[in-house]
């Protein structure tokens, strides 16, 4: 006979557990929905991110340039010191040979002076510290020993200096490698973003840049800003002659440039050497803080860390090598945070 007993009702505790579990499930579902991938970024959003990455890459590029310049300077200094050490050692050897000749002459004349024997078998520094022996030497021998001692002390200082510079060089090379890797990583990330755009979006971005460049070129042709000195205008003309050359980080001409590579190369064509990096170029002349006081050919420095430089082209425009993917061109001075001009 079937049972007619009522089914057992769930306990209050079990109802609470089930309710909590259901709430948790709803929360997890909501979080999952919130964590779902957002829509594909728009062309303008991609451009903003890419521009930021290019700016960061250029800041790293100028640090790379500084480390590279320091490396080259250290290598030259070390080479000079090593050459001096080699020449100095030759001088010491010649002086020792000369002193040996004196000893030989003394021997033929009746025996070697004991003090000279002592020198020839020991370090002259240690020997000359024994000042009581000096009165046993001729004035010529004293002079020779003094020269040897001075030269050996000089060589010791040079060797110590070379050792320190070699350590500095190793550190600089490491910094150079790190900055190079940083630049490459930024550029790779920017390229990845650009690759996410459709062909039509890429074409639209390119057209926007070309239109802005054409507008800047037209404004320059209408400009009436005063010109800089003859040497400055020679440098500016050199920069104009390479309009259309591609930006390449670390490049300083003659077929590709980064920002400070263009300005330093242009001044070199005018017979003037200016520092390689934008930060150093910022201190290479008189600063001009008002845009209205700028002359054509003045350097213009941008960003708080001074990592970008170009030439003032007049009528609110600059001539510069902007960034990866762009070429040497005119552009509005207002497209970047202006800091000041520099009149070389």
Structure in a nutshell:
The chain has 344 residues and is α+β, with helices and mostly antiparallel strands. It contains nine helices and six strands. A six-stranded antiparallel sheet has the order 1-6-2-3-4-5.
Q: Helical amount among residues, as a percent range?
A: 55-70%
Nearest-integer average pLDDT: 81
What is the number of helices?
Answer: 9
Say how many strands there are.
Answer: 6
> Strand portion, in percent?
5-15%
- Shape designation: elongated
- The stretches of 5 or more residues where confidence is low (pLDDT under 50) are 12-30, 32-37, 130-135
> What characterizes the major β-sheet?
6 strands, antiparallel
Which series of helices and strands comes N to C?
HHHHHHHHHEEEEEE
Separation, N- and C-terminal Cα atoms? 112 Å
Structural class, from helix and strand content?
alpha+beta
Overall radius of gyration: 37 Å
Kindly report the spatial arrangement of strands forming the biggest sheet: 1-6-2-3-4-5
Explain what the structure shows.
- The protein has 344 residues and is of the alpha+beta class.
- Helix 2 (43-108) runs antiparallel to helix 5 and helix 7 packs across helix 8 (259-269).
- The longest helix is centred in the first third of the chain and has 66 residues, at 43-108.
- It contains nine helices and six strands.
Architecture blueprint of SSEs:
Blueprint: H1 12-35, H2 43-108, H3 114-120, H4 124-129, H5 139-195, H6 199-221, H7 230-240, H8 259-269, H9 278-281, E1 286-288, E2 299-302, E3 308-314, E4 317-320, E5 329-332, E6 338-343
Helix pairs in contact: 2-5, 7-8
């Amino acid at each position: 006979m079937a049972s007619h007993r009522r089914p057992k009702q769930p306990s209050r505790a079990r109802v609470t557990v089930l309710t909590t579990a259901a709430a948790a499930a709803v929360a997890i579902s909501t979080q999952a929905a919130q964590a779902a991938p957002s829509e594909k970024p728009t062309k303008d959003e991609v451009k903003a991110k890419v521009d930021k990455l290019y700016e960061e890459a250029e800041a790293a590029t100028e640090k790379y340039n500084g480390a590279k310049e320091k490396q080259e300077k250290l290598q030259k200094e070390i080479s000079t010191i090593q050459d001096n050490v080699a020449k100095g050692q030759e001088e010491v050897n010649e002086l020792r040979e000369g002193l040996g000749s004196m000893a030989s002459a003394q021997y033929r004349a009746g025996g070697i002076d004991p003090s000279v024997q002592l020198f020839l078998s020991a370090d002259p520094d240690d020997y000359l510290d024994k000042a009581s022996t000096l009165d046993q030497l001729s004035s010529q021998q004293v002079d020779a020993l003094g020269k040897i001692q001075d030269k050996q002390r000089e060589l010791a200082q040079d060797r110590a200096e070379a050792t320190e510079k070699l350590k500095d060089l190793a550190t600089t090379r490491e910094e150079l490698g790190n900055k190079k890797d940083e630049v490459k990583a930024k550029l790779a990330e920017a390229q990845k973003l650009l690759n996410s755009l459709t062909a039509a979006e890429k074409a639209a971005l390119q057209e926007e840049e070309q239109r802005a460049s054409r507008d800047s070129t037209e404004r320059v042709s209408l400009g009436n800003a005063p010109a800089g000195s003859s040497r400055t205008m020679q440098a500016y003309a050199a920069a104009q002659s390479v309009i259309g050359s591609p930006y390449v980080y670390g490049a300083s001409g003659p077929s590709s440039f980064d920002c400070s590579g263009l300005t330093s190369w242009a001044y070199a064509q005018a017979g003037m050497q200016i520092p390689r990096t934008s930060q150093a170029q910022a201190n290479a002349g008189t600063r001009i803080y008002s845009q209205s006081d700028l002359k054509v050919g003045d350097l213009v420095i941008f960003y708080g860390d001074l990592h970008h430089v170009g030439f003032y082209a007049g009528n609110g425009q600059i001539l510069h090598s902007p960034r990866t993917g762009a070429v040497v061109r005119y552009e509005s001075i207002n497209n970047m945070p202006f800091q000041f001009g520099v009149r070389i």
